[in-house]
Amino acid sequence: MNPRDTMTRQVRAVLERETRINLHRFPIRIDSAEDVVTLEGEVADIAAKKLALEAVAGVEGVGGVIDRLRVAPGERRGDGAIRDSVARRLLEAAEFRNCTIQTYTNERIERLREGNGDSVGDIQVSVTEGVIVLEGKVQSQPHRLFAGVLAWWTPGRLDVLNALEVVPRYEERDDEITETLRLVLEADPLVDASQINPVCERWVATLEGTVPTEEQRRRAELDAWYLSGVHRVNNNLQVAR
What we know:
Blueprint: H1 3-17, E1 28-33, E2 36-43, H2 46-57, E3 64-71, H3 79-92, E4 99-105, E5 108-113, E6 121-128, E7 131-138, H4 141-152, E8 159-162, E9 165-166, H5 174-187, E10 196-201, E11 204-211, H6 214-225, E12 232-235, E13 238-239
Parallel strand pairs: 2-3, 4-6, 7-8, 7-9, 11-12, 11-13
Antiparallel strand pairs: 1-2, 4-5, 6-7, 10-11
Helix pairs in contact: 4-5
């Protein structure tokens, strides 16, 4: 067996051991060239996507992973509809009321709102084949993270590339990430966050407390995974009886 086939087998074995990844329902194409592995296909949710990338990166001999994984949407929508929905979410969010919001399509930029003197940033939204791309700059890490979650909440999206830059740069703090997760949970209309205590340390999120239903327990966990940079979620939420 040549080295390429050996690596592919090792990668597949790692993915099969991860309980959140269902290769039978959501097949993943695995290609390898030298020490770089490419993963392509749809997965069930954001947790499966991130866990797959992390697991493959840890395989002995893998020097890099090219991410072409997409998250299966609840509904299929065109790029224009997805783009309009993202822009609307950003325009309506109080956290971005002083932010310049623009969309990019067919090599044309449309400015939807101009930020004022206290602007928190300048965000440009584009969508290609279901992948939402956020570019521009914002004034804090919480703004960057929350914009990414709003994009993930958008119906029809397959993936989100959060390329927003924080200006001026500053050191990331766990308490800010924790506060952003708390904001996300409170903003999610499908989650009762009143009894949830989130904590983030070094991009590992932990959820403690209670929720009314198993569906809300799952949704709260996905909200934590949606934070760009979070690579592990410990879901210790209990369902109230």
